[in-house]
C-alpha cells in the first residue's frame, strides 16, 4: 500500500522522501521491524523510540513517523527514507493503522464498555445476548480476543491501536457483525482507540484505581479519560447510581440512556427486591426490571453487582432492538472464565474458581458468597511470590474474618518459598481473626483434594487467586495447572455426586 493512501486522516509535515513510498506494514516496536515497514516513533513512559530510528532503518524501514526532530547526523545517514513529522505519533499510528486495515470498525456494530469494575463481565453478558439473537460476535478485553471458534490472549485490556485495528480486521473478515470490547481509560488516553466510533458506549462504575506512576495522575484525570468514550459513541448507557456519572459525562455528544437500582428515574431499573439463586450448576440472581421495559430476569452470576451488569446489558440489547428471548437466554447462560466460575461436580456442595487476588476483590467475593448462606464458606488460597506483601496481609485478614475455614496453599510462588508466603498470610489472618480455623497444605493440588475430601453438605468452596490461569509458577518455571480440569478429574475419580 502506498503511504499517500494511509495519511488522509492525519496532519503532518513531509520532512523528506515521498508519499508514493510503499508501506509493507506498520511497526511500533523496533525489535519487530521487517524490510519496507513504516516505523512509528513513540515517546513512551519508559523509552523514547525515536532513539531506535537508525536501528529500524538498518533493518529496512522505508518510512519513519516522528513527533520530534531526529539528530541531523541520523537524518543525514538515511536519505532513502521517507520521514513524516506529526504532533502526536500515538494518535497518528491509530489513524494510519485504521487506514492500513481498511477501517474495519466501520464494518461492525461497535460496543465499548468502560468503568473500574465490571468491564469483563458486562462484555461477556452483551456478547452472550447478541449471540443468542443470532449475531456473530467478536470480543476484545482482559481475557483476550474471542470470535467464533477462536480465542487468544492479549497483553493489554485495550490493545495498542495497531494491534486493535489488526484484530478488528480479523473479526470483520471472520464475518462478525458486532464487536464488544473493553475500553480502558489508559486505552483512550494513549489513543489506542483513536478513530474508532462506537454505536454504544457503556459506563459501569468508577472507584479510585489505576492512579500512580505510568497510569493516571489523579482520580479526576482518570475519570475524564473514561468520559471521552461518550464523545465518540452514538448512545451512552450509563450507571445512574454512580456519583461520578454526571462529571464523567461532561462534554458528551451522545444520547444518554440510564440504568440503576437506587435512581428512581433510571430508564432501566431494578429495585432492591431480588432473589438469590443457588443450584448445582449456578449461583445467580433473579429480579424485576421496570422503567422503559417491564421484565423478569434471571442471571447466572451472583451478587448485587451482577444486577448492575445485567441492567447495562439489557439497556444495550434494547437500544439494539434485540428480542427479549435473546436477553433471557444470554443472561442465563453467560459465563466469564475464572470469575465466580462454578465447577459443577457435586449436588452436596458448591465449588467455584475466582481470580480475586487482592484484598478488595477477595472481600467483595466473600461478602457476595456469604449472602447465599452456605453451611460453611471455605476458601482455598495463597499469594504470589515476588509481589507486594501487603496483598498477603490483606487477603489473610479478609479471609480470616469472612471465611469459616481457610486452606492455605501456593499461588504462583515464583522465586519465593511457599512456607514464607504462608507465614505472611498468617500475620494478616491473626489480625483479622486470631481464632480463624485453617490448615496449611503447600501443594495446591493436594489442597484441592483436601477441600473436596473434607467438603460438608451445603459448603461453598471458593478456590481463589488463579481464576482463568492455566499454569502454576514455581521458581520461574510455569507448568500446566488448570484448576477446573483438576477438580473435575478428582471428583470423577472419587465418584463424587
Ligand atoms: C503505562 C502504559 O500504559 N504502558 C503501555 C505503553 O508502554 P510505554 O509507553 O510505557 O512503552 P515504552 O516501554 O516506554 O516504549 C515506548 C515505545 O518504544 C518501543 N520500543 C521499546 C523498546 C525497544 O527496544 N524498541 C522499541 O521500539 C515500544 O514498543 C513503544 O512503542 O504502550 C505499550 C504498547 O501499547 C503497552 O503495552 C504498555 O502497557 C503496559 C504493559 C501496562 O501495564 N499498561 C497498563 C497501565 C494498562 O494499559 N492497563 C489497561 C487496563 C486498565 C484497567 O484494567 O482498567 C489496559 O488497557 O491494559
Ligand atoms: N459492576 C460491578 N461492580 C463492582 N464489582 C464488580 C462489578 N462487576 C464485577 N465485579 C467484581 O469485580 C471483579 C472483576 O470484574 P470484571 O473482571 O468484570 O471487571 P473489570 O472491569 O474487567 O476489571 P479488571 O480490569 O480488574 O479486569 C469480579 O470478579 C467481581 O467480583
TrEMBL record:
<feature type="domain" description="Mur ligase central">
    <location>
        <begin position="113"/>
        <end position="317"/>
    </location>
</feature>
<comment type="function">
    <text>Catalyzes the addition of an amino acid to the nucleotide precursor UDP-N-acetylmuramoyl-L-alanyl-D-glutamate (UMAG) in the biosynthesis of bacterial cell-wall peptidoglycan.</text>
</comment>
<keyword id="KW-0132">Cell division</keyword>
<feature type="modified residue" description="N6-carboxylysine">
    <location>
        <position position="226"/>
    </location>
</feature>
<feature type="binding site">
    <location>
        <position position="192"/>
    </location>
    <ligand>
        <name>UDP-N-acetyl-alpha-D-muramoyl-L-alanyl-D-glutamate</name>
    </ligand>
</feature>
<keyword id="KW-0460">Magnesium</keyword>
<dbReference type="GO" id="GO:0008765">
    <property type="term" value="F:UDP-N-acetylmuramoylalanyl-D-glutamate-2,6-diaminopimelate ligase activity"/>
</dbReference>
<dbReference type="InterPro" id="IPR036615">
    <property type="entry name" value="Mur_ligase_C_dom_sf"/>
</dbReference>
<keyword id="KW-0963">Cytoplasm</keyword>
<feature type="binding site">
    <location>
        <position position="30"/>
    </location>
    <ligand>
        <name>UDP-N-acetyl-alpha-D-muramoyl-L-alanyl-D-glutamate</name>
    </ligand>
</feature>
<feature type="binding site">
    <location>
        <begin position="157"/>
        <end position="158"/>
    </location>
    <ligand>
        <name>UDP-N-acetyl-alpha-D-muramoyl-L-alanyl-D-glutamate</name>
    </ligand>
</feature>
<feature type="binding site">
    <location>
        <begin position="115"/>
        <end position="121"/>
    </location>
    <ligand>
        <name>ATP</name>
    </ligand>
</feature>
<keyword id="KW-0436">Ligase</keyword>
<dbReference type="Pfam" id="PF08245">
    <property type="entry name" value="Mur_ligase_M"/>
</dbReference>
<dbReference type="InterPro" id="IPR036565">
    <property type="entry name" value="Mur-like_cat_sf"/>
</dbReference>
<keyword id="KW-0547">Nucleotide-binding</keyword>
<comment type="pathway">
    <text>Cell wall biogenesis; peptidoglycan biosynthesis.</text>
</comment>
<keyword id="KW-0573">Peptidoglycan synthesis</keyword>
<feature type="domain" description="Mur ligase N-terminal catalytic">
    <location>
        <begin position="24"/>
        <end position="100"/>
    </location>
</feature>
<keyword id="KW-0131">Cell cycle</keyword>
<dbReference type="Pfam" id="PF01225">
    <property type="entry name" value="Mur_ligase"/>
</dbReference>
<dbReference type="InterPro" id="IPR035911">
    <property type="entry name" value="MurE/MurF_N"/>
</dbReference>
<dbReference type="InterPro" id="IPR005761">
    <property type="entry name" value="UDP-N-AcMur-Glu-dNH2Pim_ligase"/>
</dbReference>
<comment type="similarity">
    <text>Belongs to the MurCDEF family. MurE subfamily.</text>
</comment>
<feature type="binding site">
    <location>
        <position position="156"/>
    </location>
    <ligand>
        <name>UDP-N-acetyl-alpha-D-muramoyl-L-alanyl-D-glutamate</name>
    </ligand>
</feature>
<keyword id="KW-0133">Cell shape</keyword>
<feature type="domain" description="Mur ligase C-terminal">
    <location>
        <begin position="338"/>
        <end position="467"/>
    </location>
</feature>
<keyword id="KW-0067">ATP-binding</keyword>
<keyword id="KW-0961">Cell wall biogenesis/degradation</keyword>
<dbReference type="Pfam" id="PF02875">
    <property type="entry name" value="Mur_ligase_C"/>
</dbReference>
<dbReference type="InterPro" id="IPR000713">
    <property type="entry name" value="Mur_ligase_N"/>
</dbReference>
<feature type="binding site">
    <location>
        <position position="184"/>
    </location>
    <ligand>
        <name>UDP-N-acetyl-alpha-D-muramoyl-L-alanyl-D-glutamate</name>
    </ligand>
</feature>
<dbReference type="InterPro" id="IPR013221">
    <property type="entry name" value="Mur_ligase_cen"/>
</dbReference>
<dbReference type="InterPro" id="IPR004101">
    <property type="entry name" value="Mur_ligase_C"/>
</dbReference>
<protein>
    <recommendedName>
        <fullName>UDP-N-acetylmuramyl-tripeptide synthetase</fullName>
        <ecNumber>6.3.2.-</ecNumber>
    </recommendedName>
</protein>
